[in-house]
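User: Predict Type I-C CRISPR-associated protein Cas8c/Csd1's structure from this.
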Amino acid sequence: MILQALKEYYDRKIEDPESDIAPEGFEKKELQFLIVINEKGEFISIEDTREKVGSKLVAKTFLLPRSVGRSGSRSYETTFLLWDHIGYLLGQPISDRKSIKQHQTWLKALNNLPLELAEDSGVRAVIRFYEQDEVAKAIASSEASECFKAPQCNMSFRLVGDVPVPCRERVQAFVINSLRTPDVEEVTEAGESDKLGICLVTGEWGEIARTHGRTPINKDTKCLVGFQKNSGYDSYGKEQGYNAPVVKSTEFSYVTALNTLLKSKTQRILVGDASTVFWSQSGSSFESDFSLFFSEPERDNPDSGNQKVKELFESVNSGTYMEDDGDDQFYVLGLSPNSARIAIRFWQVGTISQLALRIKQYFDDFAIVKPPKEPEFYSIRRILVNISTQDKSENILPNLTGDMMRSILSGTPYPATLLQAALRRIRSDTKERVKPVRAALIKAYLNRFNRFHPSDTFKEVSELLDVNQPSVGYQLGRLFATLEKIQEEASPGINATIKERFYGAACATPVTVFPNLLRLKVHHIAKLDHKGRVVEFERLLGEIMGNLKDFPSHLDIHQQGLFAIGYYHQRQAFFQTKNRIENDLNQ
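Assistant:
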């Protein structure tokens, strides 16, 4: 199903004249350096195609003959057609023994080029370049030093005033002609009839791909589909790709479609080690706006994401998103690198209207009262970073991004690891234990969990303070926030409050902490000069204590989550009351 959907996406894009997807046999690839020569093969210069974009050097992209996979100890024996890196073209750096072997492979491939290619003036000039030993001039040139700094950068040749040699019309015609599927009779005569078969993706007859193309993902390249030799995957005498027949044209289509999506800025989300790509059966606004629902807003236009989310909310009422067909199929694929090949974290298929409804539910679940400076909607990255160790993105737990996205898109409960990570960060963070984003996450988790596992004792957690919430954990959280507030007003400017010392024990084992805190409260409240404030606190404490029968010996993980929300809601209520009093005085 995944390969079929990717093939459909490729077919749609290749028919679009405005699409830049590569045709069969080619790929869009960056060439960082071009060795400029004349038709006699004489060296002129080395051209650096890179330009500075922001803080990065970005090279020009060209339509090149497709690269082939190479791995293992004999990978040096494989080279690409008329382009590769400096090890192949110039045999550099000489300190790397493999460079010499790579260069020999390159020279051998040039000598074995078919006649129709060797007659091309550009290709002929490249061959002369090596026959005349112009390599030494290229290595000695001043521009070569930049190449040596980036030994894996792609290179090729260019005649003066011409396009790169692999982009010449005759070379590209050769690539297209070489894609012709061999006749059955030709193959049978050669004794290789097992290379032909019916494609399991499209049902077409054709030549089966022995190995599948690689996909760049997170600084590495892996295969989405691959069978390792002599590792238990061989069946009925068939090895590698012949076990699951996919014809070469289909293999090219799905690999190119996936690589194009992973390079896209609008159809890919990257959080932690997980990459999520998405596309619709036909072109849609939902396809181009999908990433805005989950990504951080752009710095130069911070409201763009919020506007798209609001349009999504409106679409739920109309059944369509913008001008889209609500019944159009939409695909979401979550990937992450693995040791040997790409791991599929999740695969979600649904109509646009179904996914729009589930995404709206995700935003509804995360809605909570928050300070004015907080963003209206949280991105997945912001959520996960705030529950990671030291609030760093590199510490986001593996699998958590994919598990969370799968829950959002399928409308199922969030993974338990999400709640555990949030509570762990609240206990370990001494400065801002219950941040708004953490409280919103816990609220979303608990409400969604109890929606799927209803309980007579659970009352849905609201956005605002709920004084009638029956949860013991919630009321204890309110009590702890009130005791902390009394201490703050009794000792203004105090360095450390009871939050820094007792929060962890109060939410896990309340009976060991609260009796002592209530005794301290008597001492703190006696320091307050404003008698009206004393009455307010006593009334509030009486209201909360009226909802409690006793202090439990321990709270389970869900009650600890409710403790955090009760604490957060009560703290927000104090701030709102203070702001209201200040506004009344100013009027």
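The first helix runs from residue 2 to 14.
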